[in-house]
Specification:
five-stranded antiparallel sheet; two-stranded parallel sheet; alpha+beta; 41% helix
Length: 210
């Protein structure tokens, strides 16, 4: 959607993004597209910091020039139905994360008792896929397609269902949350180490300072 790509650039400009988002949210709400309306109204107080604007705008321009169903993308949305999130540092912020690899979305959900991995494919369930794409704000991590097969990625993602959920990042390999899961899936899809994946995420996604 061309208009959404334009909005993703302006959304991170202090004050301008708030005004655009409010008008956009009302328009989509009246049209009955509540996923897009909620996305329009989501705000991160950290975006009021002008030092974050160059990286946000650069990411928006890069993302607008690539297809969402190609390559590897991090998706972020606010928690629950609340309109506010807060960025501290990638991997430790007040957002829910998922990851998309070549048109397949992988998301960690569930509870402390049982981790559940949701997998939504553009080819197999385009309606649910499009709905998920609207709910999240996407940032590209890798433009080229993954060399890892979809079957291998599916099995790897599902292997996390035997892990224990932990809200904070943990050094223990058997504890995960949505953000560690996304970085681990990125490492698998890009054929790099987990440390390299997390370093690249830190380099691409803005933190609270810049």
């Amino acid at each position: 959607m061309v208009e959404r790509r334009i909005f993703n650039v302006y959304k991170r400009i202090p004050l301008v993004g708030i005004a655009y988002g409010a008008a956009r949210g009302v328009a989509y709400g009246l049209a009955g597209d509540f996923d897009e309306a909620k996305y329009s109204l989501e705000m991160d107080p950290a975006d009021l910091n002008p030092l974050r604007m160059p990286r946000n705008i650069m990411n928006g321009l890069v993302d607008a020039s690539h297809s969402l169903d190609k390559g590897i993308w991090i998706g972020k949305r606010t928690l629950g139905d609340q309109p506010f999130g807060l960025t501290f540092s990638p991997g430790a912020d007040g957002y829910h994360w998922c990851i998309q690899i070549d048109g397949v979305i992988y998301e960690l959900g569930g509870s402390k008792r049982q981790v559940e991995i949701h997998i939504i494919s553009k080819n197999e369930n385009p309606e649910q896929y499009n709905s998920y794409c609207k709910r999240f704000s996407w940032t590209m991590l890798q433009g080229k397609s993954s060399s890892v097969s979809e079957t291998t990625l599916y099995r790897y993602a599902k292997s996390f269902e035997s892990s224990e959920y932990h809200v904070m990042m943990s050094a223990s390999g058997d504890k995960v949350n949505c953000q560690t899961f996304a970085s681990d899936m990125f490492a698998k899809g890009a054929c790099i180490t987990t440390r390299q994946a997390r370093a690249r995420i830190l380099a691409v996604l803005p933190n609270i300072l810049f």
